[in-house]
């Protein structure tokens, strides 16, 4: 069973808390684009060329700042941007980017597994300094700093690292891997491509269409979130397969293709990833657990905006699990 995912770029400094076990960032990056396995598990003589390719990413500095939030384990925010049309962005007085993909990755203090929580892009919550709006508007209003603050406030959880990727980077990554085998949850057709329920081999172009589509489904963005989780897992499984890890050329191509579309905090440098990769060579797709953030039903605001209601009772349970590092129990109850 296989799967994938996506993200953009942004600028500005983000608040950073004292770093926890840096090895956990490995799983985060694996979840983002699998560069972990790419750069980390490769033998030393290939590191130089891979490092050069990885440097093409955009790096964001995170300032040390204790917001009063606490919790065990490590949390990484993963975002994917739609890179909105400049004219539309100007008309709405936003920066041109909204995070269509919002995932919070929690790695327990003992490492070894990852819990990936997807948030509906239209969930209606407080955006600091802007009142209530869709959660995906935070990136547009204030870049990565505001996106991080917004998610921290909503989950009451400190975010240790952040990564963003542009959707277009997924196409090059998947093609460099020779395509990926994705478990298609629901059949649909889009842009000349047919996606049939069950396992299907997708090339880069098809993977991009699959990850973006929501209008074909009755529950729209909710199904897209599930599809993106499937694509993410497919990429991870392919990246850590023997076929890929024993092919220096394929690994280098993967890093080369994805890095220009990637933004990370400066703590996820190639040296750190190498150490993390070597320490986590046993990680497999089955160690990643995908969940949906608690939410209510879609509704229309008094201003005519289509949004998704929050679920405070459900969020309190998630907040407690994140703080107490009990995501395994939470995931079992959530199914």
UniProtKB/TrEMBL annotation:
What protein family does this chain belong to? Belongs to the LytR/CpsA/Psr (LCP) family.
Write down the Pfam families for this protein, in alphabetical order.
LytR_cpsA_psr
Q: Which UniProt keywords apply?
A: Membrane, Transmembrane, Transmembrane helix
Start and end residues of each Cell envelope-related transcriptional attenuator domain: 98-240
What is the designated name of this protein? Answer: LCP family protein
InterPro entries documented for this protein: LytR/CpsA/Psr_CW_biosynth, LytR_CpsA_psr
Where does the record locate the signal sequence feature? none
Q: Which residues cross the membrane?
A: 25-48
């Amino acid at each position: 069973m296989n799967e994938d995912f996506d993200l953009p770029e942004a600028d500005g400094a983000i608040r950073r808390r004292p770093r926890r076990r840096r090895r956990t960032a490995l799983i985060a990056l694996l979840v983002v684009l699998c560069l972990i396995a790419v750069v980390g598990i490769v033998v030393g003589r290939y590191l130089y060329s891979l490092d050069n390719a990885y440097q093409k990413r955009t790096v964001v500095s995170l300032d040390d700042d204790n917001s009063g939030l606490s919790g065990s384990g490590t949390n990484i925010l993963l975002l994917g941007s739609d890179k909105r049309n400049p004219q539309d962005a100007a008309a709405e007085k936003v920066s041109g980017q909204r995070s269509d993909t919002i995932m919070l990755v929690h790695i327990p203090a003992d490492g070894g597994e990852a819990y990936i929580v997807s948030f509906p892009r239209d969930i209606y919550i407080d955006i600091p300094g802007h009142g209530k709006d869709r959660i995906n508007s935070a990136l547009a209003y204030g870049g990565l700093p505001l996106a991080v603050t917004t998610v921290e406030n909503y989950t009451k959880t400190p975010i240790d690292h952040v990564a963003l990727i542009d959707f277009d980077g997924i196409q090059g990554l998947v093609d460099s891997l020779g395509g990926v085998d994705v478990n298609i949850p629901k059949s649909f057709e889009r842009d000349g491509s047919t996606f049939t329920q069950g396992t299907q081999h997708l090339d880069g172009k098809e993977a991009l269409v699959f990850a973006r589509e929501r209008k074909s489904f009755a529950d729209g963005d909710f199904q897209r979130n599930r599809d993106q989780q499937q694509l993410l897992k497919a990429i991870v499984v392919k990246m850590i397969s023997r076929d890929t890890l024993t092919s220096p050329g394929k690994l280098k191509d993967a890093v080369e293709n994805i890095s220009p579309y990637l933004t990370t905090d400066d703590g996820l440098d190639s040296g750190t990833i190498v150490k993390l990769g070597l320490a986590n060579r046993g990680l497999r797709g089955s160690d990643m657990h995908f969940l949906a953030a608690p939410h209510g039903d879609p509704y229309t605001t008094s201003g005519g905006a289509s949004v998704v209601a929050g679920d405070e009772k459900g969020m309190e349970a998630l907040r407690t699990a994140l703080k107490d590092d009990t995501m395994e129990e939470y995931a079992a109850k959530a199914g």
